[in-house]
Amino acid sequence: MKTAWEKYADNMSVVMEFSEGYKDYLSNSKTEREATKKAIELAEAKGFKDARKVDSLKEGDKVYFNNRDKGLCLFVVGKRPLVEGMNILGAHIDSPRLDLKQHPLYEDNGLALLDTHYYGGIKTYQWVARPMALHGVVVKKDGTKVEVKIGDDDNDPVIGISDLLIHLAKDQMKKTAGEVIEGEDLNVLVGSIPLKVADEEKKEFVKENILHILKEKYDIEEDDFVSAEIEVVPAERARDYGLDRSMVMGYGHDDRICAYTSLAAILDIEAPERTACCLLVDKEEVGSQGSTGMQSRFFENVLAELLEKCGQYSELTLRRTLSNSYMLSSDVSAGFDPNYASVNEPKNTAYLGKGIVFNKYTGARGKSGCNDANPEFIAKLRKVMDDNDVAWQTAELGKVNQGGGGTIAYILANLDMEVIDAGIAVQNMHAPSEVASKVDIYEAYRAYMAFIKDIA
């Protein structure tokens, strides 16, 4: 089979319809908080309950644990005791972006701007001269949370970062790609109208006008930026890509494309043999540290709670449950791009349209920092994928020594479980607009379903 599309020659609508749900999720989940909120909405519609409001659990029960509104862990309790292990799908819901600094707002020569700090591995020059939006939350001193979302509604204004006009860019054009736009220069233009005030001692009238607008719309003050999480993200919706509508272009494929397909799989599973788990985590793009990252104790803590609610808890049972579990680290792979073919080794490259991608290892410089999946586990996966007629491929992240990258796979493997990276091929990875094949999205969903249903 040359591509996975051939499987659906007579039933292409199932692929196209599945992607409609994904496009809606991607368009409305531009931050980890929005992705968590949307996932909870979808889960509750499928009968999942907040685990912390449930005293006891039994076979078939569906629950979720919310991690500070920035991550989620969902379980469907299986027929077998938890000590025999779980089938886990793990994806991250943070994406490269720009974060506002703690003191972001300033005025310079009649223009109001916001100072930012970029988040994750991005090419800074890609974020200039394009429409951007503000998404996030402000927490006031009294604990009130104010959600901020400006730039995505058709009636909203957009904001952006300026670029230097080509006519005056002689010196700029001599710089390397990594220097052409400095990180400290990613300042967002947000206004130019001065506020008419009686107090002549005020000097920054345009800044004052922006503060007036924020006060009027959100009832927030300048000092409230200190306890805020506001992200600057592309102001765009996910769109069909290609004249044949075979692909999806949008912001945040890495890694909400795997988060959505993993979530869809666990929402559709009923009465699995082994307990099914879906992990949606934050902070992967910056090393997975912190209370909402995969390196926190959150997963172990909620698993202990799950065991307790199932009447099965002991420290030894917890450790054995982890050791007997299988996991797919659901993260994207670098899709082959004919424009940049030289960075790939063709036999071990991920291609758009050929199904889910298994990466035995990631890492860099001699597999440094990788999880290297065991062949016994891979053999089990091969059988399950083939038995369920799932289109799949294997790949590495480019040529040896060309670069590299990592996922959350090694963190779960360090808990003594079998783990492999399994995700979707993406072009333009870490750019404001990424591209993926609709058939790969659907095959990933089918692969995740097969995994949590049949792997044992």
Q: Mean of the pLDDT scores?
A: 95
The beta-strand count equals 22
Structural class designation: alpha/beta
Helix content: 25-40%
What is the count of helical runs? 9
Overall 3D shape: globular
Q: What is the CATH architecture descriptor of the largest domain?
A: 3-Layer(aba) Sandwich
Describe what this molecule looks like in 3D.
With 456 residues, this protein is of the alpha/beta class. The chain folds into 2 domains: 4-95 and 251-454, Aminopeptidase (3-Layer(aba) Sandwich); 97-234, Aminopeptidase i, Domain 2 (Roll), CATH 2.30.250. It is 25% helix and 24% strand. The protein is built from 9 helices and 22 strands. It has helices at residues 13-27, 32-45, 205-218, 253-268, 298-309, 315-323, 375-387, 409-413, 438-454; strands spanning 49-50, 62-66, 72-76, 86-92, 97-108, 111-119, 132-139, 145-150, 188-191, 228-234, 239-241, 247-250, 275-281, 326-329, 333-334, 356-359, 363-364, 392-394, 404-405, 418-423, 425-427, 434-437. A 9-stranded mixed β-sheet has the order 1-2-3-13-4-14-20-16-18, sandwiched between helices. The protein has a 6-stranded antiparallel β-sheet with strand order 8-7-10-5-6-9, covered by helices on one side. Helix 4 (253-268) packs across helix 9. The longest helix is centred in the C-terminal third of the chain and has 17 residues, at 438-454. The protein is globular. The mean pLDDT is 95.
